Amino acid sequence: MKGWGVFRIGLSRAARYRWVLPILFTVNLLSALLLALLPALGLAAEFGHRPAIREAADGVDAWLVVETLAAPLSGTALGDGWPELTRRLRQATLLGLLTAAMLPLLAWLPSTFLSGGVLLTYAEAPQPFRWRRFLWGCYHWWGAFLLLGVVQGGVSVAVFVPTIAIVGGTVAAAGEWLAWVAVPLLVFLAMLWLVLMEYTRIVAVVEETRHVAHAFGEAMRFVFRHPLPVAGFYGLAFLLLGALHVLYRWGLMPHLPLGWWSLVLIVQQAFVLARLWAWLVRLAGGVALYQGE
What we know:
- The protein is an all-alpha fold.
- The radius of gyration is 24 Å and the shape is globular.
- It has helices at 3-16, 20-46, 51-56, 62-70, 83-123, 131-174, 179-206, 212-225, 227-252, 261-291.
- Helices cover 82% and strands 0% of the residues.
């Protein structure tokens, strides 16, 4: 199968199983709302109802906030009358940093849970979508995909972060010409790693195994035995994703009036929906390519 033919199958299956996209979008939206709701409720209950905070809300200079956050933990920077404000502002800052740190985790867990059901749906095509099979697939492969995600993240940090640092130092010493060789090579290796990880999940579901080491070996065998179809298909899939990003970042966002927050929110969620759809096209096409071996 050629890359373009697989890409068309991915588009067709993503459109055929129309339930999958709203499921992913709803779970993604609910996880984001939960992440925003918990800190907001905590701040509303503990932070916003304090008399000192209500008085400060009438107007606090920027330098005062900076001094408060940078002050020692004794809370004396604002004077003896403001220790509560100092402590609460630090708590709010810590809560914001903790929330930002949890974002990748909360985005990863739902997608990891749903991946098994999504891949099973595409692997059983042309059978109709069935909730029971979808949920069974989510539950059946969740543990294996959690383990695979931990390994993927650990290897990425252990290998790519030092490699980028070494390449950056080498480029700075040797000259910018080296960047034209090193950067494309790093991008290629990162994309190859992503392809191998996605095909490990695809192999696990299609072959009905939860042995991630065996699935990874089969994924490597498949990718390196079919380099041209895989490269052609993933090239088109990444091109679609890149086109969506360009349209959103350069075509829409610079022209949106930020004061119309409702319109901005709608456009942002439409972009999230489009990005999820592009991911589904990639998964559906990847399953079709593997099954057509």
